[in-house]
């Protein structure tokens, strides 16, 4: 750990933790979507939209604090990157739910539940990891596991694409479903971006 002569602004830690906790809320709404019939999906989308707005507010609070702080707990560009990647996760999850409702998808293809389970696990790990930024401890297993989960998400995504193009679905349905599974894959990528940023921060602070 680098020795510092000046005090650091510590509220960032709480704000990152709050942002990650909100992502867990989003992942639970995704799980809820899986078991919901079409009539219940609009209400789930409303709650997801509210969670996404809360995520935006958390991100803006971090940026405001960043702009008003002279001393930060770690490099400014890393704070910006971490906050932005956390925000991206929430945006992608909200987009996926919104698309399901807008496209009036009757049934999601088999395998989407695996995508969402991976995202839910990554959300839990991320929420557990954020408080550890204070001490820069117990983080290595976090970023290793999230990277493993992202690789798993890639495999699930490829299988889903193969399933969509096997002739079972008509062309319009393929376009709709592909956009949904692609957005869920982008959420998995965003989790990896968060983990990679945390690793970068930990290496710099060691």
Automatic annotation (TrEMBL):
Signal peptide: none annotated. Gene3D superfamilies: Phosphate transport system protein phou homolog 2, domain 2. InterPro entries: PhoU-like_sf, Put_Phosphate_transp_reg, UPF0111_domain. It comes from the Bacteria. It holds the Pfam family PhoU_div. PANTHER family: UPF0111 PROTEIN YKAA (PTHR37298:SF1). Belongs to the UPF0111 family. This is DUF47 domain-containing protein. It comes from Streptomyces klenkii.
